[in-house]
Request: fold
Amino acid sequence: MLRLSSWTISVLIGSCLVVCAGIAHARADEAEGTGRHTRIRAGFGRTIVSVGTSQTPADVRSADGSVASTSYAHPRPRLVGFSPLVAITTSNKRSEDDIDYEHDLQGSYVGGPLNPDANPDFVIGYLDSGSVVDLVAGSARDTLLGITGEYLTNNYIPIGGVGGTVDARVSQPIGFFAAGLSAVDAGGLLDFNALVGHSNVSGLAVDPLLCGGSEAVTAIVGTPFLAFFNTMINVDTPLEVTVGGQTFTGPDVQILQTYEPLPTYPYAIALEFGGLLPVTTASYYPVFDPEDLITPLFPTMLSFTSLSIPLGGAFFTTIQVLEGEPGPTNPAQSMRVMVDTGAQSSIMSPGMAANLGLPMASDFPVSVCGVGGLVEDVPGYYIDYVKINAWGGAMEFSRVPFVVIDLESPEGGPLDGILGMNFFWNRNVIFEPSLTGSGFFHVSDPIPVAFGDTDVDFDVDDSDAAYFVSCLTAPG
Reply:
């Protein structure tokens, strides 16, 4: 069995989050008692599964731990941002050349389904710039997307998060394709003409990833896919689809070819690609097999050439964070963060928490679930000030929620943190990556959202009222 270090294969595995006290805004799948269950992703193989009552629900903790007056100079991000849900499917398309290990970009669906009898023949999954691989899990793997039998190798890779790892099986080269929720019609059927993707791709297939008793994730398309397209995420156009009896709500996602024009937004945050090697493509790494000359050993990740070992990589930016009053003895700290479209919340490392001089007593506790189990009482803090430099002017925020978790970087060594989508919960964004030049994360001006519109569907309705009632009856 092949084993890689945990930073090499870092994938996001979503799960359930029990949220009260008005901390989250995502639509709930169900309510139970005084809590709410919803699929909230924290990134890097970690998922927040519960949020405790804030110790300072209406005030700001100052640097010495005391409570300061409630006054905010800049917008306050929510704990939870959007999640870019997309329709994902697979095909049997692979290269006809036995020594071709590089992926092939596809502007439309090519090949045939792995499981022609599947109904539905796709799943709702995630566009995830924090994942270095494409991945399919659980029932989606076998019954819907058909990554089983002849489409699997006997090679395994460990994927990990909080509490441990699980072994993921490397697939044979196939095709992964995705489209936004707008490609799913009212009857739950997918328009295959709207799909784009890549073929000759070796992904990962895992058993059901469970947390809270339910499957945590169906499928993910990661950086081997996202690095070669531009992705528009339109929060001001929420969509709702029902597939297989389950209803999904998310922003309108458009996956565009790099030559297609993009709208102009007022802010463009610089994206820097980071990895252990320069990369120009995405490929898997083969081994000799008497029965199949191109059995993948490593799954498809970003790599320098199709003959080099793929080590993956991610996209980063640098933000400034400050706790307490600025001054000569308390300067803002630089924080290099991974820009993660699959993370709804933001994370900082314990090292960054120490650099900021945060107290041991957190502002709110969270419980975090990973593939290895549950970790409780993880500290969460409201950081006084965050500045994100951008082309068009700096974006500044007050009282920003971060969860403190130790991270390993795709570049090797520690990672300062993850920039989650909670910063942009009320803005449209464009993920415009580049492996060789300047990439950008474009951000629109804020979108007006009614105060009571907790699920940001631009309709204050019974769902919002139920959420408000659940918070009123929750502890604290």
About this structure: The two ends are 49 Å apart (CA to CA). The longest strand covers residues 373-388. Confidence is low (pLDDT under 50) at residues 1-38. The chain is about 5% helix and 40% strand.
